[in-house]
Write a structure and sequence with these properties.
This protein has about 120 residues and is an alpha/beta fold. It has one domain (about 1-124): Dihydrofolate Reductase, subunit A (3-Layer(aba) Sandwich), CATH 3.40.430. About 20% of the residues lie in helices and about 30% in strands. It has three helices and seven strands. The strands form two sheets. Strands 3-2-1-4 form a four-stranded parallel β-sheet. Strands 5-7-6 form a three-stranded antiparallel β-sheet, with no helix packed on it. The longest helix has 10 residues, at about 45-50. Bound molecules: NADP nicotinamide-adenine-dinucleotide phosphate. NADP nicotinamide-adenine-dinucleotide phosphate (NAP) binds near residues 7, 63 and 66.
């Protein structure tokens, strides 16, 4: 899982069973686990490093700033959206700036009676 430091600080913990890469301009932040890495590396270096470690899939969890960094470099292969039965606040963008991604719907399924998951492929 790759995420920005704001998102990591909101989640507040490492989710079990997966490696968490946190993007920050302050990579000296302390980690007490090999499964939690703070890095100032750019997206392509992070992906290359994960690949060298044997990982074949990475999920960019957000937020908008980190999604934008990967999108603008053409590094996203899929966009997975969850539509949940809550309306609150004034909305958050998926990306922090303008993007232009052509998507094809690959799959959709329900997570429960009210929650829909949409899996799009990014056309490169
Ligand atoms: N609905 C969802 O599925 C979902 C998912 C994720 C997040 N969110 C929401 O999105 C919001 C956070 O999104 P956000 O866009 O404000 O923040 P973010 O993308 O989570 O993190 C931004 C931080 O990432 C670091 N960063 C940014 N550019 C960088 C770069 N080029 N190199 C290294 N580090 C870099 C900086 O951290 P430093 O300040 O440490 O340098 C920056 O403050 C929260 O409200 C969260 O709840 C929602």
């Amino acid at each position: 899982m790759i995420m920005g430091s704001t998102t990591f600080d909101i989640i507040g913990r490492v989710l079990p069973g997966r490696k968490t890469v946190v993007m920050t301009r302050n990579p000296a932040r302390c980690s007490d686990s090999a499964d939690l890495v703070f890095t100032a590396d750019p997206p392509e270096a992070i992906l290359a490093d994960l690949s060298d470690q044997g990982y074949t899939q990475a999920v960019v969890v957000g937020g908008a700033k980190i999604n934008q960094l990967f999108a603008q470099k053409g590094l996203l292969d899929e966009l997975i959206l969850t539509v949940s039965p809550y309306a609150f606040g004034s909305g958050l963008s998926i990306f922090s700036d303008s993007v232009d991604l052509k998507l094809t719907l690959k799959r959709f399924w329900t997570l429960d009676d009210n929650t829909l998951c949409l899996r799009y492929g990014v056309v490169h």
